Amino acid sequence: MELNYDFVRKVLIECADSDHPQGPTDKEIRAFASNNNVNLNELAFTIDKLREADFINGKVIYGGDGPYKILIGNLTWDGNQYLNSIRSSSVWKKTKQKLIDNGITASFSVITSLATAIAKQKLGL
């Protein structure tokens, strides 16, 4: 399965904007995935990868042949830093376009660096 960076950004925003101290509930995140036309396996994969990247402190509990319970939890420091670099729609759009124009598949750290450079440019720094 391939990581969808647009969906990663949406998940991080959903987590950051949650009114719950422990992030969106299982029910809320399942509805969020459905509203974004993402199946539960894609959602679970994304949550697992965000956990591996230390961007969230949530987890997926598997049962049977798929995810049983999906807990996003809160953003970690690194998750907040990454989201802060890509949260702006205009910065995100320019970041993605730059990657596409150069035919590059990038890591989180490269995306962060590129988004930060674009934000600095917008600020005249």
N- to C-terminal distance: 38 Å
The 3D shape can be described as globular
Largest sheet: 2 strands, antiparallel
Q: How many helical elements?
A: 6
Q: What order do the strands of the largest sheet run in, or round the barrel if closed? A: 1-2
| Percent helix range | 55-70%
Beta-strand residue fraction: 5-15%
What string, H for helix and E for strand, traces the elements in order? Answer: HHHEEHHH
- Overall structural class, as computed from helix and strand content, comes to mainly alpha
Uncertain residue ranges: none
Global Rg: 15 Å
Q: Count of DSSP E strands?
A: 2
What is the residue-averaged pLDDT? Answer: 89
Characterization of the model:
This protein is mainly alpha-helical and 125 residues long. Helices cover 59% and strands 9% of the residues. The chain is built from 6 helices and 2 strands. A two-stranded antiparallel sheet has the order 1-2. A hairpin with a 2-residue loop joins β1 and β2. The mean pLDDT is 89.
Concise summary:
With 125 residues, this protein is mainly alpha-helical. The protein has helices at 5-16, 26-35, 40-52, 77-86, 89-101, 108-123; strands at 59-63, 66-71.
Present the secondary structure layout.
Blueprint: H1 5-16, H2 26-35, H3 40-52, E1 59-63, E2 66-71, H4 77-86, H5 89-101, H6 108-123
Antiparallel strand pairs: 1-2
List its salient traits.
two-stranded antiparallel ribbon; single chain; 9% strand; mainly alpha; 2 strands; 125 residues; globular
